[in-house]
Each structure stands twice: as C-alpha cells, then as structure tokens.
Hints:
By secondary structure, this protein is α/β, with parallel strands linked by helices. Helix content is about 40%, strand content about 20%. It contains eleven helices and twelve strands. It has helices at about 1-15, 35-55, 65-80, 95-105, 130-150, 165-180, 195-210, 225-235, 255-260, 275-285, 305-310, and strands at about 25-30, 55-60, 85, 110, 125-130, 155-160, 185-190, 215-220, 245-250, 265-270, 295, 300-305. The strands form two sheets. It has a six-stranded parallel sheet with strand order 2-1-3-4-5-11, sandwiched between helices. Helix 8 links the parallel strand 8 (about 215-220) and strand 9. Helix 3 (about 65-80) packs parallel to helix 4 (about 95-105) and helix 5 runs parallel beside helix 6 (about 165-180). The longest helix is centred in the middle third of the chain and has 18 residues, at about 130-150. The chain is elongated, with a radius of gyration of 25 Å. The model is unreliable at about 1-20 (pLDDT under 50).
Amino acid sequence: MKILRRSLLAAALLTPALPAFAAPLVMGFSQVGAESEWRTANTASVKAAAKEAGITLKFADAQQKQENQVKAIRSYIAQKVDVIAFSPVVESGWDTVLKEAKAAGIPVILTDRSVKVADPSLYATFIGSDFVEEGRKAGRWVVERAAKAPGGALNIVELQGTVGSAPAIDRKKGFEEVIKANAKLQIIRSQSGEFTRAKGKEVMESFLKQRDKKIDVLFAHNDDMAIGAIQAIEEAGLKPGQDIAIVSIDGVRGAFEAMKAGKLNVTVECNPLLGPQLMQLAKDIVAKKPVDKRITVTESVYTADVAAKELPNRKY
C-alpha cells in the first residue's frame, strides 16, 4: 500500500500542471444609436473587432438618449466589467456616472465623441476624429469655391448635428473659424438636422421656403443630412451640386454615390472603423500599460472628381 502511494505521489509530481486560462476581457459598450450610415459602420467595426480580439462585448444602443447611456454604464458597473467604452450622445452631464465607474475601479474609454468633465482622470483615453479640423476642412473648400465665384460672395446654410454633441459643436466651430476671415461668406440659416436623413430633408425644405436670400452653399455636419437635403433640393426643382453646392462630413458610401451622380461636391472623411484600435486600447489599459490621453485618426478630403475611382474602395 505504501509503495502504491509513493508511486501515485511520484506520478503527480512528474505530471505537468495544466495552464490556467484567464477569463476573457469583458467590455461594456454604449453606442449613441443607429442614426446614420457612419454609426452603423462604427457599430459593425466594434462588434467584429471584439470577436476577433476574443473580448466579450456587452452592447447597448442608447437610441440618441443620454439617460439610456447613463443607465447602461451603471449596469456595466454593477456587472463588474473590465472596461467601459462609450460614444457620448452629448458632451456634458457625465461627471457623476464617471465618478461611479472610477470608484468601482473600471477604466473608461471615450470613442468618437468627447466629454466635458471637471476631472479628466475620470476617463482613461479618447479615440476618434478631430471634429474641429473636419469643420476647418469643409470651410477651406468653401473659401476656395468663393474665390472662383462672381464677386466672391456666397450665402451658406448649415445643417447642424445633434444639439450639444461634440461633433456638432466642434464642426461648427472649425467651419466658422475658417470662413470668418472672408466677410463675403455668410451663414444665413443654421439649424439642427439631428444627424438623420429625414430631419436633414425636413430642415432643408424649411430653408428653401425662406426666399429672402439665394442659397449658394449647404454645409451639412454629416453625409446623411446632406443626402436628405439633396432630396429636398431636387423636389424644389433645383439641381443639388450645381444650383446649391454641398459639402458634408463622414465619407460614407452614400456620399460617394451622390458625388458620382453629381449631386454632392465634397465629403470630409470621418473614419468609423475604430474597432481594432479600441480593442487594443482596452487590452493595454487593463494590463496597466501607458496610453495617450487622446488618439486621433488620420483622415482625408474627397471631391466629386475622385468619387467614381474611390467608391469601390469604400469599406463603409
């Protein structure tokens, strides 16, 4: 019996221990909604990248409501996820819930849109576009167009994004920063189209009914609103891209199709494919590796003359 025990003990000592498999990293992600082609592509990128990275993703659609995002974040805190990521509906009103996440020891990553908080340590990093620079790019194109216009004067109408959102605030800021140097460039009407095609069309219809001043240029804070506005312009008997020049932001496939058809003049790229970078950031942050506070993606400007060539290359 003693010999048998010794044999079993020796066998146990010689048998290599099985590796301990760590549980998958769990991310809670709160998305703004599904208001545009851009957002749909962004969501698809996040979900695909999480699967590829072996990260368990808990996903919530906020349907454009801040209260839904706050509820989702608190749910993630209660579930003790490893990291929280979200694209905030608006910039302000996040201090309390982010303090709760920090108290729970859960790092937060901002994607696509930033927040305004008293304590920047409430979030680990931001990954996304430079919205102010996007507005500047749109403004520079309008300035170039004005230089070729008779008298150099242009009346501009603006379709803003969701009121209080970072892209709406920053794109307007960047655009106005550039055009203010030319007194002949005037924004004669400006209203939110909520980043949707339907609202973009509705607001553009309202702009067109106000016939006190001729509209020369439309600046839309995203492509979906521009595409909605194109419908309104055509229904009014005008030619979009010709009678009214149009510059918008995002660079979605629908914008390239509109440019190819001669109905949109230029789109400023805003890359939604942030998923792979987001997942790597999450892994680095959970592993306590240092990351930059702000990570900005590189983007381009596309005009109608390159639309046909570029369209097959678009991934969103």
